[in-house]
Amino acid sequence: MKKLILLPLFAFLFTPFATQAQTSSSGSAIENTLGIGPRLGYYKADDAEEGSFYGGAQIRARLGRVVGLEGAIDYRTAQEYDLGEFSADVRQIPVTASALLFLPVSESFQPYGVAGLGAYYDMIDYNEEAESIPGLEDDHSVDFGYHLGFGLELPFNRNTALNVDYRYIFLDPGSDSFGDVEDADFSGNVLTVGLMFYM
Prior knowledge:
This protein is mostly beta strands. 9% of the residues lie in helices and 57% in strands. An eight-stranded antiparallel barrel has the order 1-2-3-4-5-6-7-8. This is Porin family protein. Residues 13-196 form the Outer membrane protein beta-barrel domain.
C-alpha cells in the first residue's frame, strides 16, 4: 500500500504542463493524430504477496475524437509468489495492444474505456527451497491475456496530455509455469499514469 501512495507523485511531476491548459487557445481538441510518451504504473497480481512498480512507453493513435488505439511495452519489477513449500519472484515484460473509446466531455476532460490483448514475457526465479524439488528450475515463458478498464485523458493543449487509467488484467499462466502448482495466477489490478506528446 505504501508503494501505491507514491504513484500520484508521477502525476505531480507533470503539473507544470497544467498551466498551459489555461492559456491554450480554443480548438485544442486532440484528434486524428499520433502520439508517444513515457508511462509509470503499479501492478498487483491477486496471488502475489505485494505489488510492484513498472515503467515503459506507449504510443496512441487518435482516430477522430471518439476512437483511439494504443500500443505499449513495459518492464515490471519482481513480485513474490508464496507457493507453499517454496516461493518465486516473477518479472514481466508485457507488450499490449488496446482499443480506446473516448467520451469527449470537453477538450480538457476526456474519459475513456479501454479493452485489449497482451503478450507477457515472464521471468520466473525460484528461491533456494525450490532447488530440492526435481524438475523445478528458473524459467522463462510467454503467456497471453486480455484487459478491461477505464481512464481519463487530460489534454493541456493540442500536443500534450496526461492520462490516468485503471485496468484489470486477466492472465492465467497455466499449471506448467510453476511446476505442479495450479493456483498461482498473474491476473490483477494495474494503475497507469502516462504523458503523451502528440504530433
